[in-house]
Amino acid sequence: MTEPVKVALLGCGTVGSEVTRMLLDDPGELAARVGAPVELAGIAVRRPDKHPELPQHLITSDATALIDSDVDIVVELIGGIDPVRGWLLSALRKGKSVVTGNKALLSEHASELAEAADESGADLYYEAAVAGAIPLLRPVRESLAGDRITRVMGIVNGTTNFILSAMDSTGAGYAETLDEATRLGYAEADPTADVDGYDAASKAAIIASLAFHSRVTAADVHREGIAGISSSDITAAKSLGRTVKLLSICERVTEEDGSESVSARVHPVMIPKSHQLAGVGGAFNAVYVEAEAAGQLMFYGQGAGGAPTASAVLGDLVSAARNKVAGGRGPRESAHAALPVRPMGQTPTRYHVSLDVADKPGVLAQVAQVFAAHGVSISTVRQRDRRSTASLVVVTHQAPDAALRSTVDEIDKLDVVREVISVMRVEGEAE
Amino acid sequence: MTEPVKVALLGCGTVGSEVTRMLLDDPGELAARVGAPVELAGIAVRRPDKHPELPQHLITSDATALIDSDVDIVVELIGGIDPVRGWLLSALRKGKSVVTGNKALLSEHASELAEAADESGADLYYEAAVAGAIPLLRPVRESLAGDRITRVMGIVNGTTNFILSAMDSTGAGYAETLDEATRLGYAEADPTADVDGYDAASKAAIIASLAFHSRVTAADVHREGIAGISSSDITAAKSLGRTVKLLSICERVTEEDGSESVSARVHPVMIPKSHQLAGVGGAFNAVYVEAEAAGQLMFYGQGAGGAPTASAVLGDLVSAARNKVAGGRGPRESAHAALPVRPMGQTPTRYHVSLDVADKPGVLAQVAQVFAAHGVSISTVRQRDRRSTASLVVVTHQAPDAALRSTVDEIDKLDVVREVISVMRVEGEAE
After folding, report:
1. What digits encode the pLDDT tens for the residues A285-301?
2. I want to staple B290 with a disulfide (CB 3.0 to 4.6 A). Which of A12, A304, B151, B312 is the partner?
3. Which residues form the active site (chains A, B) (predicted)?
């Protein structure tokens, strides 16, 4: 009989309780996949008395003692940076593999954790940290390891996608829709992490690090949330055959001098209704990956929720356990390139600008002159679009974001411009 | 300096030449991912004089000698069963890892190859065998290893998808569209393997084996191709808001006695235009995976072509090379369940039947009586649909395929039925 692989679980909320259920439900099935029994050795929770549903002999409030006991793998589902960071570093340094879904921790301290894992030969897996049940990190890290990923773009935050989908279909404003999302449980009581883009930025940092074999932290990611999106923005998007999504965009870019850098950003984007990401509704996630040889790939599925996220945790747990049984470890991360991060101002983007302008001749000439003065080339102009309140709608070609930003600032000051109704970046061709 | 990992390449056609290019182009990048240099030690081709573009010192016509030299990994891109089967078994038995895209071989001899790999501790990877560049097998095998996959359904043959997409958009017949596909290079001179569903059936066998941890061979897969699809079928589908796709469908089914079995089949299916698979056009592939905890996932990308397929080969090669460097091996297959294969006749499906019937009272009653006599429940009936030539269109609820088949046979014999215009299985709800 092979020795069991012993697992410590830290945290037992929505995802943790699903993981517990899956570990206890069908141990024979898991053992067959791993090649040895998988034993849940203990569950550390802050308030043991709050968990009457769990097997009481497994519960402890002493996470440190549980980690230091003879467990082989630590599964962390508490979240946040402290005290989790110290616990996981300690586990990794002792050669215990770690499976975690902690995006905040990974987007800030991945280097330190990866180094600790490398030194002791332990595994560090975190598929659950990005896009819930969707197998994304493993394909990026392993399946595409021989290819060259150039771009990753996706919807990785379900809360904001739910809100934007609802605004698009009901025409309601942001505040009202957020209230509804909170009532339905799609948004947390304090929605800041989601609606201000912190969650999506953490995920972008994790994706960019793996995709480009470099180290990108959350602080490197340009971040704009959805709190500024108005129903005018949604209407403007609709009048162009587009919809608004909060996208995480990670790109590998070649600078003029031939050197490489990384761009990572999170902001609302108008995309054509015909774009595959436009059809991703509600709390679903979808991620496009572009690689030189593979071309365009898409991954789609549930980005959150207890059972879907637990599926990702269990996949990692099986891998870590198999490696323990085989006496090896999985592929380490390959963050060998220290690529600089291109600032948002230098990142080429395209803008959509809807303006309410004075009804007299020469207005377009004045507005166009401002674009030209900033070196921004205009793609399309529509005047007096009956489907919106705007009297002038401009979509640009690509230009550095800073140039676009200052163009809009200057246009806003023109006497002939009554109001800047909507400004938003656009992706994708069709209109 | 770490010892290089030596690679033998067998075959150098469309995919092999891309693999060669990627191996030779940026050795530093690959070495960084693997942790050691990756050295292309030799390329075995049948006719060395036909490859002036390759580095001549690498070329050999003696595959056996190349495999027997001091190479660590054998990449096989020749295809077919013999002599490849013997070569790969010999390599695996000597502890050399194998990376292959050979679906015909794997769908018939996977057990034997996996056993040889297990015995010597070598890796056997074959991501390129199914759905080209799309990372599908690794997610199924590893990311979902702790979950329970219940169903995999997808478009895994680009040639038939191109033909069906073209028939749908042009209204042209099958023979004419096949000619066009051949002219454009989307179909081979002998299109049998694609249009008769052999290729899709091999892939279904590989998918089902990995997804259900059982052993399913190509012979276990019920197979119907697209050669029988007429423009009447396409028209009938359109009149129901549907389109026709050749799908590979693998299911884990629970029998009435509680035992489990596997169903694997390839056949044309009418799916709603709103279904995500309906939008997959041209030579693209897309695969849905349903798992108990993860829910519904979708993977989308290029299913064939030199560079995309080479991307999948390189990903496997990097994994195998990393394992060599680390002294371990990747997760073995877990074909521990020997689930029986449910025959097609017992598999529940839904049928669409378009009939040209006599224009007199009581016809529907007669037809409905035949369905009832076979225990088949009708979902919808439409009479005298102006959008098609049919005068009676029936869509059933689920029933065993054999019952549906014999219902159609009996209906065809009814005096009041002038012609059975179209019979096809349907998937998905909306109409």
Report:
1. 999 999 999 999 999 99
2. B151
3. 203
